[in-house]
Amino acid sequence: MLLWGVSVSAQKKLDITIPYDSTSNRFTYAGIVEIDSLPSSVMYSNARAWLIGLNVDTSFVDAVTDMKLVDNGVVPIHMPIKNMPGIWNTFYTLTLEFKEGRYRYTIDRFLIWGDGTASAVGSTPLETFVKLHESMKVTKKAMINQEEQFCAILDVEMKKLIESMKSGVEAPKKTSDW
Asked: 149 and 34 in contact (C-beta within 8 Å)?
């Protein structure tokens, strides 16, 4: 009797919840929000005020004629790696475009910048970061877990940003009677 033993090790697949746009080949959050009760000029003003409050910065691109705002923001991702605390500053581009009764948002161009320390050099696009495990041999599974954990935290932060943005754009302007 001859027995053949076959050893098959199941490869763990990467599971990322961040939406991926196959047209641009980027991770991208995008949506159209309808607000019939506000003219585009008011939504634009509210969004501009929200962005300034968010970043305490007026350096974003402010294209009034196109009813478009573009901002480069950053979200710190707190994630320890190998029992060491880490803050991974993740930069993104937020684009808001306004038409009567609606606006469109796009959040993309994610860049991960080191671990938030002065010694960190360079940045990595998110699309590259999630493929780091492909070049690993021994620690591949651990790297996939790290990539998934990072993306899960980033996904939560981006969803909070989107909810804050929606509230900010819809918020009535505070007026003073003074």
From this structure: no
pLDDT tens across 90-115, in order?
999 999 999 999 999 999 999 998 65
Q: How many domains does the chain have?
A: 1
Reported residue count of the chain is 178
- What 3-state DSSP class applies to 111? strand
- Are 117 and 102 a contacting pair, CB within 8 Å? no
Cβ proximity of 142 and 150 under 8 Å: no
Give the span between the Cα atoms of 116 and 75, in whole angstroms. Answer: 11
Is 151 part of any domain? yes
Name the residue range of residue 47's domain.
24-170
Residue 120 domain-assigned (yes or no) = yes
| Domain assignment present for 63 | yes
Q: Is the dihedral of CA 46, 51, 57, 62 positive or negative?
A: negative
CATH value at residue 32: 3.30.530.80
- What is the rounded distance in angstroms from the CA atom of residue 98 to the CA atom of residue 105? 9
Q: At what angle do helices 140-170 and 40-55 cross, to 10 degrees?
A: 130
